[in-house]
Design goal:
three-stranded parallel β-sheet; 8 helices; binds iron/sulfur cluster; single chain; Rossmann fold; mainly alpha
């Protein structure tokens, strides 16, 4: 007996009761819904882009509408690292360590030209030009600095990305976030 037969055998009252009280979905949809509506960022910034990130959390801009108002003070409770500002080579291993301390699933937004290509400091002997060489970046947000509205746009893009994830390929995704960390963090290869 198929589902249609079972359904047609029910009386109208039972059908109405089921239609009003039963929700059918997939594990992926429920899991992704929970993830994309509670992306908690890490309280972390390295330069001037951080000011715009802080502005985004104020009542005027209201990052709470995305469920992302809970900036965590510890990486162990954070889902999102926003690379907000220039990262020096001295700081890069610390950023990598913070990223590694975040639990899966975790995401990274590269906010501002400095973390994407080095920005105005490109070529400096002390600055990392490409932060995606240090941590895997999910969304690139160019600008100098990007506005809070632009940061919200990148969060929306990240939410779109999360919506398409499936637990079947979770292992691959987690694996792609693992770095060749057999060496000390201080020996990370950082491309100039
Ligand atoms: S992109 Fe511009 S605003 Fe952002 S950290 Fe670099 S110099 Fe500062």
């Amino acid at each position: 007996m198929g589902f249609k037969d079972l359904w047609s055998n029910l009386n109208k009252g039972d059908q109405d009761h089921i239609e009003k009280n039963v929700l059918i979905s997939t594990i992926d949809e429920v899991y992704n819904w929970a993830k994309r509506n509670s992306i908690w960022p890490l309280s972390f910034a390295t330069a001037c882009c951080g000011i715009e990130m802080i502005s985004a959390s104020t009542p005027r801009y209201d990052i709470a509408r995305f469920g992302s108002e809970v900036f965590r003070a510890t990486p162990r409770q954070a889902d999102l690292m926003i690379l907000a500002g220039t990262v020096t080579k001295k700081m890069a291993p610390i950023v990598a360590l913070l990223y590694e301390q975040m639990p899966e699933p975790k995401y990274v937004i590269s906010m501002g030209n400095c973390t994407i290509t080095g920005g105005i400091f490109r070529g400096s002997p002390t600055v990392v030009d490409y932060m995606d060489q240090v941590v895997p970046v999910d969304v690139y947000l160019p600008g100098c600095p990007p506005t809070p509205e632009a940061l919200f746009h990148s969060i929306l893009k990240l939410r779109e990305k999360i919506s398409k994830e499936t637990i079947l390929t979770r292992g691959d995704r987690v694996g792609s976030h693992q770095f060749k960390r057999n060496k000390e963090l201080s020996e990370i290869e950082i491309r100039l």
